[in-house]
Write a structure and sequence with these properties.
This protein is mostly beta strands and 173 residues long. It has a single domain, classed as Immunoglobulin-like (Sandwich). The chain contains two helices and ten strands. It has a five-stranded antiparallel β-sheet with strand order 1-2-10-7-8. A five-stranded antiparallel β-sheet has the order 4-3-5-6-9, with no helix packed on it. The protein is globular and about 40 Å long. 32% of the residues are buried.
Length: 173
Amino acid sequence: MWRESGLLPFIGTVALITGMAATTACPAQEPSSPPRIASGILKDGRLVVAIGDRVTVHLGEDLRPVVDAVIPAPENSDDPGQHSSRPGGPITFTLKANPSGGTILLVHSAYSKPLRYHARIGIVRESKSMSAPTSTCPVLTGLMVFESWPEPIVAIIVTSFEENANGDTACHN
């Protein structure tokens, strides 16, 4: 549930604002469209990447993400963007709607070691917002990982990072 993921206050505020806008400025808006979530770091240190955004982070000494930039996802999804060299990264997450349906996440890492991250997906089913755990694949230095889901995802919540010291390339829950 969004309550468990810590996103409920964001969704509640956005839903309230969206609902007010729909009744006053745009009554024809579909009530089932999901609210817009803001990308960034939650109070507990988790990273939120909203649909349509590219978020660039670097990792601190404790492997907690620090946001360097949030921009709209570019048209060319395969372009990881310009990366400056810095000790903890950067690592770029781009979450976009797949033109053929569903959602695509692209993760590019310039971190000095292979990384593994754990995440939850934010989804809307039957007009209810919820989150669910998802499998993730390791990200090797200088490479990009593509992950996809057959359904629309409104956000991905990265719950933690760890160095992938053993070089395991299998995807895990």
